[in-house]
Specification:
By secondary structure, the protein is an alpha+beta fold. The protein has helices at residues 13-24, 28-37, 43-50, 88-100, 126-142, 145-153, 188-208, 214-217, 254-270, 272-292, 297-308, 348-356, 362-384, 389-404, 409-418, 426-441; strands at 64-72, 75-82, 106-109, 114-121, 157-165, 173-181, 220-227, 234-242, 318-323, 326-334. The protein contains 16 helices and 10 strands. Strands 3-8-10-9 form a 4-stranded antiparallel β-sheet. The chain has a 4-stranded antiparallel β-sheet with strand order 5-6-4-7. Strands 1-2 form a two-stranded antiparallel ribbon. The longest helix is centred in the C-terminal third of the chain and has 23 residues, at 362-384.
Length: 442
């Protein structure tokens, strides 16, 4: 059992590594070597990475791949994707190729409002609180001018401030519910700074309000924080074509494919157990682009899954129909993204990814990310309703299995050739490599 340590954050990086290696590993030298192996050779770049978070000891790499040939609103894009799961980039690329000859992807930003809230407890007369709020509302705008000036120059700022009565949910619980436009930044710091200023104004003005009793003057601010649930910051991505054009797979008629595909979507709309996995596949595409472009994938995940439950039951994010012989497949997702600030201006590969995308605005990035999610979903459903998901996935996963088996380059070539016509599994690959090595030794 390891010992607790005081003042760990004050140790140097080398001291932190030495302590960890000694306390947690049977071979401290081997652990230290591995940790250092993933440092960047450029000391300046490594220092930049070290300063992103606290107590850094090394870098944790994810592959950065690209999915080319995405036609989005009649423009061709190559989409960067940072992800560890095999077959995701290949599936997205395959969808891009499929839809490129069928009109491509269409994407539209429906709205871009962000939300922040000041949560507070007020024990008193609601009519007096309403009157008080109306009186001080202009102060919220005027006394945050220094915070909002630059955002207003870019076309953003505070859109509205509401007083919301939530006492039906929790005794004496109220909110300042604030809507923001943050333009090309995700805006978390901007929103939270404004909210904290609102909280100060609320408390100070309450204490000075002569209409309040002493108890009412004791209005208590619990917290001031942005919300990652952004149901009014939504983008739609869609594809459509005549059913007859869904004819790439010779093993299934386009009409049958469309019917099975739509049924698969409808199952995800009504069955939460399926919907979770269905939406996880969508997030494979979304998260990969969000990570590659330096945005907060945890915030995006939380907001999107909340949106999937907005009608009281967890459901599919995507939908499909056939009307008048036209197949249509679309997705609406809330995405609070930024292309300025944070890692977007610091991480070299984030800057590279954004440049690859043509230095998009936040709205343009929302469109690209939503398209990546829809493309991934199309690829997954297409496989599920035709050949099955494992055939393609395991083919892509084969290289991971071969690496686990410590195969040589020549063994990999033989294995890839063999499994072009045989089902892939870990045991099948292990058996094949074992037999191959026996033959080699003879």
């Amino acid at each position: 059992m390891s010992k607790a340590i005081a003042g760990f954050s004050k140790l140097s990086k080398d001291q932190k590594i030495a302590w960890i290696a000694k306390e947690y590993f049977s071979n401290p030298e081997e652990a230290t070597t591995l940790i250092r192996k993933y440092w960047n050779n450029d000391p300046k770049l490594q220092k930049l990475h070290d300063e992103f978070i606290e107590n850094t000891i090394t870098n944790f790499y994810l592959p950065l791949g690209v999915a080319p040939n995405f036609t989005i609103n009649n423009e061709i894009h190559t989409i960067p994707m940072a992800i560890e799961e095999s077959s995701v980039v290949a599936a997205a690329s395959k969808s891009a190729k499929f839809w490129a000859t069928r009109g491509g992807f269409k994407a539209t930003v429906l709205n871009t409002e962000k939300i922040g809230q000041v949560h507070f407890i007020y024990k008193g007369d609601i009519s007096k609180l309403n009157s008080f709020f109306t009186t001080i509302k202009p102060l919220f705008f005027s006394e945050t001018n220094s915070l909002t000036a630059n955002m207003q120059k870019r076309g953003g700022g505070i859109l509205d401030i509401e007083l919301r009565d939530k006492t039906d949910l929790l005794p004496n619980y109220y909110q300042l519910h604030v809507t923001f436009e943050t333009v090309d930044s995700m805006g978390a710091n901007f929103v939270n700074s404004c909210l904290e200023q609102f909280a100060k104004i609320l408390k100070n003005e309450a204490q000075k309000n002569q209409d309040f009793t002493e108890e009412e003057k004791g209005l208590q601010v619990v917290m001031s924080i942005l919300s990652n649930y952004v149901p009014n910051c939504v983008v739609r991505a869609e594809v459509s074509c005549p059913v007859a054009d869904l004819n790439e797979d010779k093993n299934i008629a386009p009409e049958e494919f469309a019917e099975k595909f739509i049924t698969a979507v409808k199952i995800a709309e009504v069955e939460p157990f399926r919907a979770v996995t269905h939406n996880k596949g969508i997030m494979n595409g979304i998260d990969a682009v969000v990570v590659a472009t330096g945005n907060d994938f945890r915030a995006v995940e939380a907001g999107i899954h909340a949106y999937a439950s907005k009608d009281g039951k967890y459901s599919s994010l995507s939908h499909a129909t056939v009307e008048n012989g036209i197949f249509r497949f679309w997705i609406d997702v809330p995405l609070a993204l930024g292309t300025v600030g944070g890692l977007t201006s610091l991480h070299p590969l984030v800057k590279l990814s954004l440049e690859m995308l043509g230095k998009p605005s936040a709205k343009e990035l929302m469109q690209v990310v939503a398209v990546a999610g829809l493309a991934q979903n199309f690829a997954a459903l297409r496989s599920l309703t035709t050949t099955g998901i494992q055939q393609g996935h395991m083919k892509m996963h084969l290289m991971n299995i071969l690496n686990q088996l410590n195969t040589t380059e020549s063994e990999k070539l033989e294995a890839v050739k063999h499994f072009e016509k045989n089902a892939v599994s870990y045991s099948a690959a292990a058996d094949f490599i074992t037999e191959l090595r026996k033959v080699t030794l003879q």
